Amino acid sequence: KQEVTQIPAALSVPEGENLVLNCSFTDSAIYNLQWFRQDPGKGLTSLLLIQSSQREQTSGRLNASLDKSSGRSTLYIAASQPGDSATYLCAVGEGNAGNMLTFGGGTRLMVKP
Amino acid sequence: EPEVTQTPSHQVTQMGQEVILRCVPISNHLYFYWYRQILGQKVEFLVSFYNNEISEKSEIFDDQFSVERPDGSNFTLKIRSTKLEDSAMYFCASKEQIYEQYFGPGTRLTVT
Fold this sequence. Notes:
Structural class of chain A: mainly beta
Number of helices of chain B: 0
Largest sheet of chain B: 7 strands, mixed
Number of strands of chain A: 11
Structural class of chain B: mainly beta
Strand content of chain A: over 45%
Largest interface: A-B, 24 and 24 residues
Radius of gyration of chain A: 13 Å
Distance between the termini of chain A: 41 Å
Oligomer: heterodimer
């Protein structure tokens, strides 16, 4: 059974810092990997999707990498801002067309002004 | 920008009652999903739906649960006889073929 782990569970950084969030998964036979942002009491906002054949994806200040063989992904956030404060979730897609997402427990990020 | 919508935002029900949670996926999407998140726990996959039938389901999705696409726009999750442990946030999601899943804002279900 797939297990997804995110480290650290919580992170507090000053504004402007670059940071890296980590995600690891136990079964490398994944279809894709998706990073989400979740604000308190709200839904999930998709940030980046990496297909299993890809190594990285970029969107603005965000860069996600995938090393399938070692079961790892990282989300790099450049020049962090207070508005980046949220919980960041990693999810691996398995099954038909990556239908079944297995989520990690998230990293709760606080960016201090 | 198109988005997934869900109603109601909060549903309170008594144990043993039936509830129907409603979702309107993004209009050109073909795959539909339900997930749940019990307070303080991970988001968990329940079921995927494609071409008017269930594609995959988890162990959580037992006979108490059912899904339906009653028309061209709605996608529903029914829980036949709610239990206290069904209290959670339920998220609907949808996607096109190979792209990312887009999630709705969720319905908070409270079973008393």
